[in-house]
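From the shared-data thread, chain only:
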Amino acid sequence: MSQIDEVLVALRRVIRATDLHSKHLAKTTGLTAPQILLLQAIRNKGHVTIGELANDISLSQATVTTILDRLEKRGYVYRERSTTDKRKVHTYLTDTGAEVLQDAPMPLQDHFARQFGDLQEWEQTMIISSLQRVAQMMDAQHIDASPVLDIGILDRQSNPTERAIGYDEKKAD
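Structure, as tokens:
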């Protein structure tokens, strides 16, 4: 196999692994990776504002709001206006949300992050540099992307039943 074929196969494997994991999450939990990451962030913080969530998982506030709307409709989270500062709205995990999260598989990026963290600093730097170069070679360096390993629109509806009914799918910022 030529070197270019080896590179293309490796890229395809990364894309395919991300796609397969996204489908596994949707099948086993009915959730997307960004939804699980949001639920985890809420669980870890106890109560949190949309701005804090957006910063924690590196998504725009608009995307976080759309995802929270979907999670709230499903009874996994609820929001309450702050009693001390009426401009702030805090998000809380419901018992149902905690149960779903407890049974959810680990997001692919958590698995990757754990293994990446075990590498030597020089290996991490080499991987970052190589992937940034690959993105540049694919004219993708200007594409806005968040550090969430998922295929497709980040605030999409993952529930196939709701998709069939015709709920809107909005594009992420």
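The CA atoms of residues 19 and 25 lie 10 Å apart.
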